[in-house]
Amino acid sequence: MTDLATSPEAPSAAEQPPLVELRNIRVAFGGVHAVEDVSIDLHAGEVVAVVGGNGAGKSTLMHTLSGAHPADSGEIRINGQPVTIHNPREARQHGIEVIYQRLALADNIDAAGNMFLGRELRTRFGSLDDSAMAAATAKVMRRLNPRFTNLKTPVGWLSGGQRQSVAIARAVHFEAKILIMDEPTAALGPSETAQVRDLITQLKAEGIGIFLISHDIHDVFDVADRISVMLMGRLVDTVNKSDVTKDEVLAMIIAGKKPGEVTRADIEQLHS
């Protein structure tokens, strides 16, 4: 019998390494430093919003993690271990999936066809196993969004929120542990935006870590745990959402000032 008094305890969440660590990442395009010495981390079951104006470098930074554009220097660690990611296939091998703003869905086929697009299941005779793909899609949809019932409808006919559900289901089915979500509520109405926020909350509860790229400060404050603000390729700061106001985050985005540096005059100027 195991001696409970002497058996090692599992490490607490605080003792576990971050799910992702981006350390001193640099990316240049010619003479332009799109990302300069940026370090950000992400824990399991956490949403870190990466925000900033156009050209701030947030998408380029996430491209280094997704394999779309390798960094010129710096280090990526997954669960504390250094990794090299040259392309999206290698990113997926580390449990990294991207939900793009345009979703990369084929409008003329249904949810199952999209979920397994490029990774189709086949029978032992080599034909497409439509029933297995449909069953797997229904299972993951019940888990993520029980209200989703349009399994046979071409996704081009679905609402924006339902299309997001399909894209997220695809990532979750293939065991994503790290999601990069690029403007997930762009062009969605209030009810669809609420649906996507519910999905994000569900993913957090399942221990998935999410990097959220967003221009919408309301989205950020609704779902993020921490906020990393970038300006002109550099990290202004990473803050706990609970420690800052929306005005302080806007001052970081626009003026590059950390919360303790923001004055009343700065705040008034934001609203002038």
Keywords:
10 strands; 6-stranded mixed sheet; 9 helices; Rossmann fold; alpha/beta
CATH topology of the domain at 20-106 and 175-270: Rossmann fold
What is the molecular shape?
globular
Q: Mean pLDDT score, rounded?
A: 87
CATH homologous superfamily assignment of the domain at 20-106 and 175-270: P-loop containing nucleotide triphosphate hydrolases
Strand content: 15-25%
Instruction: Using the coordinates above, name the CATH class of the domain at 20-106 and 175-270.
Output: Alpha Beta
Strands of the widest sheet, in order across it, are: 6-7-8-3-9-10
Q: Multimeric state of these chains?
A: single chain
SSE order:
EEEHEEHEHHHEHEHEEHH
- State the share of residues found in helices, binned by percent: 25-40%
Provide the low-confidence segments as ranges. Answer: 1-8
Folded structure, characterized:
With 272 residues, this protein is of the alpha/beta class. It has a domain at 20-106 and 175-270: Rossmann fold (3-Layer(aba) Sandwich), CATH 3.40.50.300. The chain contains 9 helices and 10 strands. The strands form 2 sheets. The chain has a 6-stranded mixed β-sheet, with helices on both faces. A 4-stranded antiparallel β-sheet has the order 2-1-4-5, covered by helices on one side. Strand 1 (20-29) and strand 2 form a beta hairpin. Helix 5 packs parallel to helix 6. The radius of gyration is 20 Å and the shape is globular. The model is unreliable at 1-8 (pLDDT under 50).
